[in-house]
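Hi, here's the filled form for the chain we discussed.

Project: internal
Contact: R.S.
Residues: 246
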Amino acid sequence: LKYTLYNFTLGRGGDGPEEFFKGYKGYFVCDAYAGYNGLFRPTGEGSPDIVNAACWAHARRYFIKAQDTAPRLAGVVLTLMARLYKIEERIKYEPAYKKMVARQRESAPIVLEKIKPWLDENVTLCLPQSAMRQAIGYTLGIWKELNVYLEDGRIPIDNNLAENAIRPIALGRKNWLFVGSETGGHTAAVLMSFTATCRKNKIKTWSYLKDVLQRIQSHPARRLHELLPDRWQNLQAASSKKIPIL
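And the returned structure, exactly as it came back:
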């Protein structure tokens, strides 16, 4: 993934995601935030255009929290989840079809034959308001979606890439509580998209922005895509190879 893209909305309702992903078809890796539910509504043909692939990291966090009051029970599930992540680490750089084969052969038995029976067995043994019951309930509530990653090697096991991308915003949220205006919020999203993408592609952000601002007035509009951070690297390389005319 070469790009990090931020979007700004005035609220946390479902209108924002639905507008942003209008026309998109494919998988969507996320937590159980209700604002995303509208994305997964079936179309006129009976199946949704966007398939919800739930995040295992979010499910794991509930069991980490439950360790404080039920360390033995939480340890059982966390150990099994750790095995799933160990498999993912081993196949991290494999092509998608090999990932799918490994998941079907190694991960699926852990998910279906070990984790699911354990959840079903223990859900009624825990107090309704306990952290462990909440962890089990959350996981069972999105169980179908948690299994989606087993079907396609292109789907990550969690959305930690997105979580890491928004961590700086979450840490600075109180300082950035007021963006001045809605226009300021959209501008901040655009600028942060560029800077985060530069970091992802190991590009010096200031060098990129300075060069693009100098080029953009004379750069053909039909070729603006060349000024995207990853494409800009190629443009820079081509420019450095030009032989000056004396």
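Let me know if anything looks off before we file it.
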